[in-house]
Amino acid sequence: MDALRRAGLQLGCAALLCCVHAAHAAPEAKGSAPPLTAFPGAVGFGAEAVGGRGGDVYHVTTLADAGPGSLREAIASADGPRTVVFEVGGTIDLASPLTVRTSRLTLAGQTAPGGIGLRGYPLQIVDATDVIVRYLRVRTSDIHARGLPGKPGNGNGDLPGDAGDA
Question: Is 136 helix (H, G, I), strand (E, B) or coil?
């Protein structure tokens, strides 16, 4: 009789554990969850870009074109997912084109107090995926007098026939 009682107790405990586990299990999904977007309200082609989510955070602390704490350093030193935030606001005078070659990068211009702008050369994204650029003002003027060959002073040439395409 003891063996029967012990077996019944073990079976009862096992049933209780199953009920407790079932009560705490995640509810069964009725459909797939919507994909996580790049940022709230993102729509369109790049809406599902992951950017620097889950990676390190680099703080831009200077408006200098290069050097420690600069945007150029933040981009050049990224070796994995990175989100770039700004502790300064204003305009960065670029001495050369600013080229992003690392995938999974977020440039969060909305974090700059008063905003952030780039002037003098373009911001280029080359052979990189999942790059999110938000709230950066980019003014690619012909300030350095590097017009197209045969078309001096024609800006960066992205608007044919427009001499002031900055």
Answer: strand
Strand partners, 18: none
Q: Structure pTM?
A: 0.67
CA angle 112–114–118, rounded 5-degree value: 70
DSSP letters along the chain, please?
A: -HHHHHHHHHHHHHHHHHHHHHHHSPPPPSSPPPPPPSSTT--STTTT--TTTTSEEEEE---SSSSTTSHHHHHHT--S-EEEEES--EEEE-SS-EEE--SSEEEEGGGSTT-EEEESS-EEE-S--SEEEESEEEE--STT---BTTBTT-TTSSSTT-TT--
In-domain check, residue 29: no
Residue 28 lies in a domain: no
pLDDT at 7: 46
**Domain total of the chain:** 1
Tens digit of each residue's pLDDT (9 = 90 or more) over 31-76: 777 778 888 888 888 888 899 999 999 999 999 999 999 999 999 9
Tell me the C-alpha distance between 75 and 70, whole Å.
9
> Do the domain assignments include residue 159?
no
**Mean pLDDT value across residues 98-119:** 95
Query: Is the residue at 96 inside a domain?
Result: yes
Structural domain that includes position 131 = 56-139
